[in-house]
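@channel sequence for tomorrow's demo:
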Amino acid sequence: MDAKNLARLTRWLLYGVFGGIVLLLIGLYTWAPLRAFFLAAYGIGPGGSAVVLAFLTAMGLIALWILGELVAVLRTVEEDPFIMKNARAFFRMGFAAEAAALAFIAKCFSAFTFMTAVCGLVMLLAGLFALVLAQVFRRAVEYKQENDLTI
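structure tokens (generated this afternoon):
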């Protein structure tokens, strides 16, 4: 599979994940069985649901933000991916992932589950990866601009 088709396939997969998260967030507020399922996973009755719903909504919105940034980066792959816009996008993705990691770690202290700890660790590592990638892209853009000026 060539790079152009791979980028297109990846972009469509990201659109699918984006749509799935949107449907889950909408269902969380509009479909009582789904809300009851999530609350039962935390062992919380309907009275204590506001904090759990706020947490799930915040994590869903952060996921949508990261997916939106990834789609924007993938759109540039076919032309020239080494642009400062992509370096800034990776920085924002890293920042968002680190914010999510902090939220998951904080949740570990109030309602610990193994999956919360795993999600916190995964988000921490993904955030660090994105921040490193932002620096790599920034340097690549600087080298590319310097090279364009010398030719």
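heads up for whoever presents: Residues 114-150 form the longest helix (37 residues).
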